[in-house]
Amino acid sequence: MAKTIISEGKTTNEAIEKGLKELNVSRKMVDIKVLESEDKRSFFSILAPRVVKVEITLKESVHEKEIKPKKEIILTEEDQEKAKENIEKFLTELKSELPEGTIYNIKKEKNAIYVELNSPNLGFLIGYRGETLYAMQSILTAVAGKGLDNRVRVILDIEGYKAKREKTLGDLAEKVSKTVIRTKKAVKLEPMQAYERKIIHSKLQGNDKVETNSVGEEPYRRIIISLKK
Question: Which residue, among 208, 199, 200, 204, has the nearest Cα to 228 in the 3D structure?
């Protein structure tokens, strides 16, 4: 279901700008319908405060697009082995720059290569909300695909961060959804990466009382949790 809000202002432009700011989107991402025009004012209403109302609707239900699974690329056994060799070579060289005792594990599967890094002192490779981890995952993806025709999907985890973060986000989704149901007011979450937004969408997609929509542009894209209409 598309996200729709009613915005008010002294002029049409002011009403639109307020609505765009509330949704944290640009004009090209919405459809706009003027409900009460600034031009339609009778003689008797001339002394009343000028109020223009517009209806602003997101052009698509973005969260459905985000949780839609991408087309999988199936790797041959040969491609899996080559990708693993590429990653091993990279990590062997990288280990000399990492804390002593750092170990890694690489698991081959037909649709992805899973990499785990473990050490008590790898927090700097995770970064704030996993930013460094995801950057390194992108690097490993490029490394793994060297010399291969197919794109290789690499999933990196460090010290079990992703499992812990997934639980945190799942708990957050449940907590905020209850707040939205109780107060009947939408809640806008802080900006998140696509992977984290997907966790929130998936957690609440079966909820029959609330819905989720992603608004804004990267890297400030965020989720709004609101009551279903």
Answer: 208
199-217: buried (b, 16+ CB within 10 Å) or exposed (e) per residue?
Answer: bbbbbbeebeebbbbbbbe
pTM: 0.62
Residue 4 CA: distances (Å) to CA of 25, 31, 58, 186, 205 = 12, 9, 7, 12, 18
For residue 60, the model assigns a pLDDT of: 60
Inter-residue contact 187 to 140 (CB < 8 Å) = no
Residue with tokens 């090209």: 28
Going by the DSSP 8-state scheme, the letter that residue 190 receives in this structure is P
What domains, with CATH codes, occur in the chain? 4-60 (no CATH), 77-159 (3.30.300.20), 164-227 (3.30.1370.50)
Q: C-alpha angle 113/117/120, rounded to 5°?
A: 165
